[in-house]
Amino acid sequence: MPDLLVDFITSLDGYGSGEGWPGYWGLAGPEYLTWLEESPESNYTALMGANTYRQLSGFAAETEDDSFAQLNAMSKVVFSSTLKEPLEWANARLVHEDPVEAVRSLKAQSPHGLRTIGSLTLCRSLLGAGLVDRFRVVVFPVITGSTGRERIYDRYPDVGLEMVASRTFDGRIQLLEYVPNILTGPPSGDHLTT
Q1: Residues near 128 by Cβ (< 8 Å), separated by ≥ 6?
Q2: 8 A C-beta contact, residue 116 and residue 44
Q3: Rg of the chain over CA atoms, in angstroms?
Q4: Residue 194 pLDDT more than 50?
Q5: HEC states along the chain?
Q6: Residue 44 to residue 4: CA distance in whole angstroms
Q7: What's this model's pTM, rounded to 2 decimal places?
Q8: Are the C-beta atoms of 141 and 173 separated by less than 8 Å?
Q9: How many Å apart are CA 77 and CA 54, to the nearest integer?
Q10: Is residue 130 part of a domain?
Q11: N or C: which end of the chain has fewer CB within 10 A?
């Protein structure tokens, strides 16, 4: 069964964006950009909600360089009760049904993996339903306490994370990849060592 990757790009304080900040907080260096271009998940189907679709398809339409070429080429599933067919962004299909059930079905049928892009509410629902196999966060070295928008982890369940990969790009950007485990509450202190 293909895996589902939740993929976030954040400031150190857990914001998905910041008012007035450029993309990647203006800090994407050559190592990170090369990794994005060579991403092994480029053949994954991208899952997103209506807000992320509107924002990214708008950027893709306005961008004249190749920075959106990989995302334009990806198969995309957009979950929305407000958008209407046909979607204008290439390789995007609209799904009106419950995202949890639709993703459960996609995981059972898809020959390739699935990954989210943005879409905080969608990610929270999929994680809560136990459908997420990997959780990846790329942390940019900025704190956006005054200008930060879209706090990523608000209203998430408690989640234990087992690290399976990490990497530093351009001497400053941290990639952290985990296998998530939904917790029923805080763990007891019995297993902790000193």
Answers
A1: 156, 157, 182
A2: no
A3: 17
A4: no
A5: CCCEEEEEEEECCCEEEECCCCHHHHCCCHHHHHHHHCCHHHHCEEEEEHHHHHHHHHHHHHCCCCCCHHHHHCCEEEECCCCCCCCCCCCEEEECCCHHHHHHHHHHHCCCCEEECCCHHHHHHHHHCCCCCEEEEEEECCCCCCCEEEECCCCCCCEEEEEEEEEEECCCEEEEEEEEEECCCCCCHHHCCC
A6: 9
A7: 0.87
A8: yes
A9: 13
A10: yes
A11: C
Boundaries of domain holding 28:
4-183
107-141 pLDDT per residue, tens: 999 888 999 988 999 999 999 999 999 999 999 99
Token pair recorded at residue 172: 């400053």
Is 190 part of a structural domain of the chain? no
Whether 111 maps to a domain, the answer reads yes
pLDDT the model gives residue 33: 87
**Token output for 30:** 């050559």
pLDDT tens profile 33-80: 899 888 878 889 999 999 999 988 887 777 766 667 778 889 999 999
Residue 162 domain-assigned (yes or no): yes
